[in-house]
């Protein structure tokens, strides 16, 4: 806060002048990485933007920082200070008087694996129903999924995608199972950190978020799937996975984190002492 001098307001606060160069640098870095999966020209534009923005930001800071003075309201027009709260806060004290770290409880990894398997089955049922109802082929969705690892299937026609292929079946089952278990484990780790309503977060919010991500990246990861995907059915299958996996993970019995155990138990000292006594 400064007094009146040099034509400035009677009471003012000196702040760094606003600048858009940091956002331009962020855009340049984004374009640099986007060019790795699109076209080198995009990366070149990103590098140019980053250099220009870096120089512009430098000139606003050195040799003399640009500032802006903000006039304060008169004292009689300012809001009164908030009174201090007298409400007591009950801290959650852990071992040795230390504060506990959240989450206090976690879902077991077995629940994530089970949820991933159950969710994968639910998702497969919806995908196979789409193949039978829309494409008149049970193998169509499986062949589309295997196109991510089979160059030959990536160039297949619609008739070939509807035909049975043993290699595509094996690859599709492996890819679908691995991804389902991985996402189930992520559910077990992330859902306990979110505020309640696990079915809402895992069954609706997460599927819609990763559907948007898949929509943005599918052309690079699996162009064949992007060309043939039916997005309404795709969204339904993702929601089916999220509801099934979220239900299994949410119903699992949570386990307390190791912070509730004494240091000796966390380090395994008691186990070693007992094993020495048993000898």
Describe the model.
It contains 12 helices and 4 strands, in the order βααββααααααααβαα. The strands form 2 sheets. The protein has a two-stranded antiparallel ribbon with strand order 1-2. It has a two-stranded antiparallel ribbon with strand order 3-4. The protein has 279 residues and is mainly alpha-helical. The model has no long low-confidence stretch (mean pLDDT 80). The chain is 60% helix and 5% strand. It folds into 2 domains: 12-73, Helix Hairpins (Orthogonal Bundle), CATH 1.10.287; 105-256, no CATH class. The chain has helices at 21-34, 40-61, 109-133, 140-146, 151-154, 158-162, 166-190, 198-221, 223-228, 231-251, 263-267, 269-278, and strands at residues 12-16, 67-71, 105-106, 255-256. The protein is extended.
List key phrases describing it.
two-stranded antiparallel sheet; 4 strands; Helix Hairpins; 2 domains
Please give the structural blueprint.
Layout: E1 12-16, H1 21-34, H2 40-61, E2 67-71, E3 105-106, H3 109-133, H4 140-146, H5 151-154, H6 158-162, H7 166-190, H8 198-221, H9 223-228, H10 231-251, E4 255-256, H11 263-267, H12 269-278
Antiparallel strand pairs: 1-2, 3-4
């Amino acid at each position: 806060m400064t007094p009146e001098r040099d034509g400035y307001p009677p009471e003012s606060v000196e702040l760094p002048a606003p600048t858009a160069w940091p956002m331009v640098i962020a855009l340049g870095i984004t374009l640099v990485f986007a060019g790795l999966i699109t076209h080198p020209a995009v990366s070149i534009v990103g590098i140019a933007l980053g250099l220009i923005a870096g120089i512009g930001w430098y000139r606003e800071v050195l040799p003399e920082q640009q500032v802006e003075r903000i006039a304060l309201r008169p004292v009689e027009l300012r809001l009164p200070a908030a009174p201090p709260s007298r409400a007591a806060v009950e801290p959650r004290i852990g071992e040795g008087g230390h504060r506990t770290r959240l989450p206090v409880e976690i879902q077991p990894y077995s629940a994530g694996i089970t949820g991933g398997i159950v969710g994968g089955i639910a998702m497969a049922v919806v995908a196979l129903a789409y193949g039978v109802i829309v494409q008149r082929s049970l193998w169509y969705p499986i062949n589309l999924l295997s196109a991510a690892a089979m160059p030959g299937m990536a160039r297949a026609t619609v008739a070939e995608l509807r035909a049975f292929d043993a290699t595509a079946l094996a690859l599709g089952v492996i890819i679908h199972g691995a991804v389902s278990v991985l996402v189930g484990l992520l559910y077990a780790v992330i859902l306990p950190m979110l505020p309640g309503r696990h079915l809402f977060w895992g069954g609706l919010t997460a599927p819609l978020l990763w559907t948007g991500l898949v929509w943005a990246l599918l052309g690079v990861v699996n162009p064949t799937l992007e060309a043939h995907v039916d997005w309404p059915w795709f969204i339904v299958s993702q929601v089916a996975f999220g509801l099934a996996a979220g239900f299994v993970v949410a119903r699992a019995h949570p386990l307390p984190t190791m912070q509730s155990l004494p240091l000796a138990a966390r380090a395994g000292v008691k186990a070693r002492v007992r094993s020495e006594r048993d000898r």
